Every structure is written in C-alpha cells, then in structure tokens.
Amino acid sequence: MSSRRPYPAWAPWLFLAPFLLFFTAFGAWPLVRSFMLAFEQTFGPRTTVYVGALNFRFLLHDPLFWAAVRNTAVFTAGTLVVQVPVALALALLLNRPDLRGRAAFRLIFFSPTIVGSIFVGVIFSLLLEKRSGLVNTLLHAAFHSWNPDFPWVDGFVMPSLLMASLWLSVGFNMSYLLAALQNVPADQLDAAAIDGANAWQRFRHVTLPAIQPVVGILILLTAVGALQLFDLPFILYADSFGNGPNNAALSIVTYLYQTGFRSGDLGYASAIGWILTIVLVLIALGYRWLTREEDAAS
Amino acid sequence: MKSFFAGIVRTLSPGISLVLGLGIISAIVVALLPLQPRGGIEIWLGDGNHANLYRALAPEWNRRHPDLPLTVTLISGPALQSRMLSGFYSGTPLPDLIEVERGQIGQVFAGPLQDVGFTDLTGLLARDGLTHEIDPASYSPWTSRGRIFGLPRGAHPVMLAYRSDLVEAAGIDVKQIETWDDYFRLMRPLLQDLDGDGYIDRYPLTISLTNASFSEIFLIQGGGGYFDAMGNPLLNSATNARIVARLATWYAGPGRVIGDINMYTGAGLRLLREGYAVAIPSADWYVGNLPVSLPSLAGKIKLMPLPAWERGGRRTSANGGTMIGVTKASKHQEVAWELAKFLYLSPVIARQLYDLTHIVSPVKSTWSASYYDRPEPYFCGQPVGRLLQQAIPDIPPRPSSPYLSSAVQLVNSAITQLMAITDRQGYVRPEQAAADARRLLDEAQHTLLDQIHRNVFQQAPATP
Fold first, then answer.
1. How far off is chain B from A27, nearest CA to CA, in Å?
2. A43 and B4: CB-CB below 8 Å?
C-alpha cells in the first residue's frame, strides 16, 4: 500500500487560502485593530493618540452609556419575557392538526420577518403616530374618550419598541418552535393521554422537555439579538438619530454607532464595542454552563 | 500540478467550472482595468435643486476654464457624509469642493484644527474683501475655533407662517403681536376643541419635539444657545433656563398651547392642511417648500415675524443651512476657490435659487434685487422675499462645535424631562418650572463638559 498522497502537500492550504485571506482581512485584523483602538483617541484612523484606559474609565461615568445599557437591558428582558412565550403559544396553536388554514397563518405570522426591520420600523412609526396614526385613529373612533394625541412613540418608548420587535421576530421564533413541536414523539403524548394526563400536564411533562433544547437556543439567540438593538429605534426615532425622547430609545449599539460614525471617535466606539462583546460572550458562556448537563447527556 | 487542476475540473460539474472560470476571468479583467483619471474640477453635493442650478452654469464655467471643466456629482446625504469623512480621515478620493449641510459639519471639526479636511478660508475671504460682504451670522455655523471653512449658501431667517384664513376669520390682528405672550394671548380663541370630544384639535402653534433642531430656533432667538463664539458650552445659561421653562409650559401641563406634529412627514403636512395648527416657525427653505407640499393652502397662508421673547427683542431666528468648502485634497486650490465664489456669490444663481426654493442669499449686494419685492399669490400677495431679506440682519449667530449634536440631544432631553415634570406638577407659569429647568440644564452642561474635556485634540474651551 503506497503512502504517497494523491495531492500536493500545499493543496489543503490552497483550499483554505480564500477563507484565511478573507477572515484575516475582514475578521481577525479588524478585531485586533478595534482592541488597539479602544485604548486610543481618534480623529479618523490617521490621527490617533494613545490614551491608555481613559475610554473605559470614561465609560464608567458616562450617563449616556449607562442610559444605553439600561435601555438595552430592559429591551432584552422585555423581549425574552414577551417574545418567546408568544412564539411558543403561536407555535402550539399552529401545530394543531385540526386548525384550518394553518399554512396561511404560518405565512402571515412569518411575513414580517421577510420584509425586514427597516420596513417594520417605518410601518410602526406610521401606525403609532399621534393623531393621524392608525392605532390612535381606530381607538379614538372606538372609544370617544381615547386621546387622539396619545403619545405611543414619544411617551411609551420601550413598549413601542417591544411591540415592533414582537411583530418583526415572533414569526421567526415561531417557525423554530413549530419545527421542534413537530418532532415531539407522538407515542409519548398518546401514552400520557392514556394515563390520564390533561393538556397542561402533557405540555408540561412531555412537550416542554422535548422542545427544551430549541427553547434554550432560541432564548440565547433572542437575547443576543436584543442586545444588538439598533435598526428599530434608528427608524422609529430617526429625527433624534435613534435616541428617542430623553434618550429613552438609546441602545448600546446605537450609542456605539453615534460615537464612532457621527462623532468620529472610533476609540471610544471600540471601547463600547468591546464591553458589548464581553457581555455577549458572558451570556453565551452562561448559557453553556446552564445547559452543560443536557450537553453531557446528549 | 497539471493532474491536480485536471482533477479539480473533473470533480466540478461543467456549470460550476464555467461559473468559476468566468469569476476568475472577471476578477482579472477588473483588476487590470485602469483607473479613470479624474479630470477638471469636481463638486459633490446632496441637494438636487442646487445640482441642477450648478449644472446649468457648467457651460459658462467650462468656457472660462476649458482645461478644468466642471463636474457636479449629486450624492445622497448620508453617503456624502461617509465619503467626505472617509476622504478626510483616510485619504480616499475627494472632489475639489463639497457642499455640506449643517448637521454634517460638526464631525469635520472634531479633530485638531490642522487636520480639518477643508481649507481654511479666513485669509482668502479677507484677501478678496468678502468677510463683510456676507451676513456675518451666516458664517458662524461654518466657523471653528475662529477660522472660517465655508461660504454660506443661504441666510435662513425664520418667520412664522400662519393660516391667515383662520386668524382673520377669528378677527385677530397680527399687527398687535410683538411678543410670544402677546401671541398666545391673542391667539387663545384658536385653541379649539372642534368636535367636542374634550381634546384640543387646533393649536395656535406647532413645532415637532422629535425634530432635533426645534429647541435651537427658540434658544438662539432669545439670546441663548448651545455655545458661545469660542466654542464654550452655554447649556445652563440663565437665558436658556428661562426659555426652556417657558417651552415646557407651552408644550405640557394644564396650560399647553403648542401642538407637536412632525411637519416634515406626509401625515404632518396633512394635519397642517386640516388646520391642526395655526402657525409654524418656518425658515426660508421651508417657506419655499410650502407651495409645493401644500398647494391647497394657496391664499390661506401669510408670513409674520417671529414674536419676540420680550418687547423690543429679536423677531427672527435661523434654521438649517448649507456651505461650500474647498477640500485640502484639491490640487487646484485657487481655481476651486474661484468656483466656490462663482457658484455662491453669483447674483444669477442667487435669483434662481430664490425662485426655486425661497432661500435668501446672505450676500449683501443681492439684497436690493427687485425679485424679492414680487408679491406672491400663494402667500396672499405678500412680498415674501423682502420679508425674509429684511429679517437677515437680525439673525442670531449659531456658533459651531463638534459637540453640537450632543448639545442638541442633551438640551432636548432636558426639555422632555421638564415637560414630564410640568405634567406631573401641573405647572402653568414658567416661574414654577424655572428651578427644575436650571437643574436639568446644569446636568446637561456637566455631561457635555465631561465629553469635551475627554477630547485630547480640542484645546480647552477658550475664554471669550
């Protein structure tokens, strides 16, 4: 048996080269450069001054950064509390074989995901407009005492963002859960029913454990997505560049964008980016730690 | 080696091989294409009206400068800003001249003075006797640390555009209005619940709270503002606190008299048409926009000077603006400066721009032009141009700063918070909100100073 390889020794490197090239140019190097930038003050990439940990120290006392952290945390918590249960409820509903028009409903619920966040942001800014928006117009028509100038967007920033986000993403999450629900072993559900388990007990003790891995990954994806909130407030509060009234819509990524690309302070923006990265990594590690037993079992 | 490539071709399907081959060939061809050398003199701008005017003048310019023909490149606002800053920061290709809006200029001034990407025009303006030929307040947005970096396109005085049909039907004589207090007292009958549902359907005035520049119009009119001429922040000045307290009691609480609609959206324009608001502060460019956006209001709108904050006070303000600057990257500095003057000082363009947009030139020699006296049927026969022009000498300066957008956001946040307090506490009189206004503006000032002091490129704010 010949030990001669059927390809030249450099062949694997040739195949890896495109990836390595692109990853180095657009992944690794920017990562290294942004880490270096976090310790510099910049006026564009050419004029930089090393400032040590000044950017990180300033972050600790920057009220706008903490406002952004608070808003992002509230949005993330709100998204998790609202979105995953609603997506699960919709998936359970659409998983019922006796429901007529299931395919149509799936398409309807999934369609906002297809049109994208910019479109959803524009639609919601029109829907929630004072006086002329559809929501206020309908509510005023239905209940004469409803204030036609009700300030949905200005006075209820987080609920408005959560509503828009729910409409945008619930169909996507629902499709994951629907796929998981369709893989729940029917024989186990049947056996539980024969043993006298009611609908809630079947859901609690059969369905939920079976879809738990998908729910877990969905929670992780939703949290990571929510922490990167940017486009919805940027569209809904376009006049204030995504800040909203009293900075109530300012998210960490919006603040990063404003600092880096509106103020030109790439160093400070990099420091914000690294803080966000550390938070995301911690969340991912936390998720891995929480699901370690499950991983070991599988 | 040969067998290796033959192996790859054998492994891949004919279709994939074809796509791969085409991709490789295309990449090689693109890489070998020679870069088109930029000839002549080029200007980037973001306004279609301006672009059309300048293109129409290109033949005349080209006749004078056959070796440096004019290229006008229209780029959308955000793309223009990105490309401009990329050029300033990283040396990517830039034109000889760029027309920039006020909201885009702050970032240009953020670094050391010598790194500003526009040529310092202060000496050229003095050399050519232009320093005093142009309304001095119009230079202020384009000035950083005492140096002027652009020629202003318009003066942008702000007047009050009001629904004359509604005001006159109510028997209100606007000539009796001198101050904001007069205004709201006389216009009180027009604060109306038209359908009896308990909610106000018509306000004497509207200005959008969500619009970033709303507070500036009032602050600078009243003698306040965000920065002094040397770039020192003034957010917590006594004047600002007084104005902010009044704005909060106008916008919120039991004495609310101002509507809040975004006049730049279709929905906002519809509400204006339906009479939700009686009046709206309007800069010259917004005045020019009214006949286009709201043609059905022809003969129902008039202009009047802004009511003053106190008797004998300033009756105008300023809003928006565009400048032209020569980039340091230009290889034809003198010719670019000549082109800037050709486009911005030309009485022909000043007239065309007025006809198209109602933007009034800040160049003093154009102010006596007869077209400003033309009665305009849309505005009930008023000589709108003359009214706007007469307001120019009273326009307050708007000092620029890299921290302008931060300052605007901080002040607007303070106003929003004060409105919430006003609603909660039921404040009606500005004096009731004054202490809270001062406290919130102190916080805003403190935050802004922290940001400024962190910037190692900016010298410490100078003492005036």
1. 20
2. no
Q: B325, B97 in Cβ contact below 8 A?
A: yes
User: What structural domains and CATH numbers belong to chain A?
Assistant: 54-297 (1.10.3720.10)
Complex-level ipTM: 0.76
State pLDDT tens for residues A70-127: 999 999 999 999 999 999 999 999 988 888 888 888 888 888 888 888 889 999 988 9
- Chain B residues with beta carbon closer than 8 angstroms to that of A263: 106-107, 110, 402, 405-406
**Contact criterion met (CB below 8 Å) for B198 and B297:** no
Give the per-residue SS3 of chain A: CCCCCCCCCCHHHHHHHHHHHHHHHHHHHHHHHHHHHCCEEEECCCEEEECCCHHHHHHHHCHHHHHHHHHHHHHHHHHHHHHHHHHHHHHHHHCCCCCCCHHHHHHHHHHHHHHCHHHHHHHHHHHCCCCCCHHHHHHHHHCCCCCCCCCHHHHCHHHHHHHHHHHHHHHHHHHHHHHHHCCCCHHHHHHHHHCCCCHHHHHHHHHHHHHHHHHHHHHHHHHHHHHCCCHHHHHHCHHHCCCCHHHCCCCHHHHHHHHHHHCCCHHHHHHHHHHHHHHHHHHHHHHHHHCHHHHHHC
A263·B402 Cβ contact <8 A: yes
Contact B210 A265 (CB under 8 A): no
In chain A, the N- to C-terminal Cα span, in Å, equals 39
Locus of tokens 């565009």:
B322
The DSSP code for B144 is: E
Q: Which of A247, A246, A253 is nearest to A231 (CA)?
A: A253
Residue written as token pair 């509503």: A163
SS3 B402: coil
Cβ burial, residue B241 (10 Å; 0-12/13-18/19+): buried
The whole-number average pLDDT for the span B165-178 is: 96
CA distance B313 to B456: 39
Interchain proximity A145–B211, CB inside 8 Å: no
Give the distance, in angstroms, between the CA of residue A264 and the centroid of all CA atoms in the same chain: 26
Q: Whole-angstrom Cα distance, residue A50 to residue A38? A: 9
Alpha-carbon distance B138 to B146, whole Å? 14
Q: Do B450 and A46 touch (CB under 8 A)?
A: no
Say which residues have a Cβ less than 8 Å from residue A93's Cβ, sequence separation at least 6.
Answer: A99, A105
Cβ–Cβ of A239/B262 closer than 8 Å?
Answer: yes
Residue of B nearest to A148 (CA): B199
The angle formed by the CA atoms of residues B435, A255 and A65, to the nearest 5 degrees, is 55
- Mention every residue, 6+ apart, whose C-beta is less than 8 A from residue A19: none
CB neighbours of residue B238 within 10 Å: 12
What distance in Å separates the CA atoms of residue B74 and residue B61, rounded to the nearest whole number? 18
Find the CB nearest A44 among B90, B198, B212. Answer: B90
B280-290 pLDDT, tens digit per residue, is: 999 999 999 99
Closest residue, chain B, to A243 (C-alpha) = B409
Predicted TM-score (pTM) of the model is 0.82
- Give the mean pLDDT of chain A: 89
Contacts of B69 (CB under 8 A, 6+ apart): B39, B40, B41, B58, B61, B62
Best residue in A240, A250, A255, A266 to probe B by mutation, most B CBs within 10 Å? A240
Tokens of A180: 């998981």
Distance (Å, whole) CA A172 – CA A177: 9
Residue B264 confidence (pLDDT):
79
Output phi, psi for A188, to 5 deg.
Answer: -70, -40
Each residue's pLDDT tens digit, A159-191: 999 999 999 999 999 999 999 999 898 899 899
Q: Is B132 exposed, middle or buried (0-12, 13-18, 19+ CB in 10 A)?
A: exposed
B86-96 residue pLDDT tens: 899 888 899 99
Bridge partner residues of B158 (DSSP): B283, B317
Residue A262, min C-alpha distance to chain B (Å): 7
